[in-house]
Amino acid sequence: MRKINSKDIDYIAMGSTVLGTGGGGDPYIGKLLAKAAINKYGDVSLIQAEELKDDALVVPIAAFGAPLILVEKLFSGDEFIKAFEMMESYLGRKIDAVMPAEAGGLNGVIPFSIAAQKQIPLVDADGMGRAFPRLEMVTFTLHDIPVSPITQADEKGNKNVYDTISNEWGELLVGATAIQMGGSCAIGCYPMSGAQVKKAAVHGIVSYAQMLGEAILNAKAQNRNPLDALIENAAAIKLFTGKVSNVTIKIDGRWNKGVCEIMGLDDNQGCNMQLDFQNEFLMAKIDGKPVAMTPDLIVLIDAENARPITAETIQYGARVVVLAMKSDDQWRTPEGIELAGPKKFGYTEKYVPIEELNKKE
């Protein structure tokens, strides 16, 4: 166990945005909520999954919806507490710890505000090791852990509890209601025992996010290039350097869908990259040839300061670097590829790991 303070949240938010792979939402509002809660209630205890009792009750609390909506429709913060308290009420017992559902962006830091207010620990683990656009795309599904009960709350005071027949139905029903709530809401989901967290979660992800954030934000003080520091700490592959030449984006249901086109610069002069995204970046191609694909991580970085760029904030003319990072081993199993690989998003390409796609001649 170790304590997470307000300064640590800056690092975790930055690293979570890297792991968000273009999705997960801008962490700014989540960071403000987490810092306000820590300043009021005290530092948060971050514990390892192994420290949980097997019969402990652990619940991920998350924001749910289209990240582009959050540019104009902000969370109040109360909806996350409501989702938490509804879960305790429905299950008839106290929640012993919270955890992120995904490591990405906003959802990498939101649970800290709950942990601080409720004076309970936060588990250093999540269900993705990155961000994915669908509720069932978690390692918990790979271990047959049900998403239900799901608690849902919005900033207006609307509340729902779902008991669905499958994790896919959880996505369909909560997603449909989230649209009516204005495109975003707060949820509690995948209530688990400590034993299940130990078996099914991606471990150490909060600490990993913090390490990546520290690499970026502390690099200049260490006389290092922030991009080089990130690449080294993430064991990332540098795919492309260029300038954003076109971006199309639309809200489809509860997702941001679109394409980012990048004109090559420096070593990539004369080449073009295409990034497809559905909240998160799913496929990267150079001159039509895949160089990275889901479930591996594709990260868009501002070439000037090494800050990660979320899909809804891409700007024409921005100079960028595209990186690729290995996904957690659970996603590289046949079951993981079936759940979150290219075929799941309608691509005809068969999944090939980034290290194979980018093997040096």
TrEMBL record:
Residues 166-354 form the S-Me-THD-like C-terminal domain. It comes from the Bacteria. Pfam families: S-Me-THD_C, S-Me-THD_N. Residues 7-163 form the S-Me-THD N-terminal domain. Coiled coil: none annotated. SUPFAM superfamilies: CV3147-like (SSF160991). This is DUF917 domain-containing protein. The lineage of its organism: Bacteria, Pseudomonadati, Bacteroidota, Flavobacteriia, Flavobacteriales.
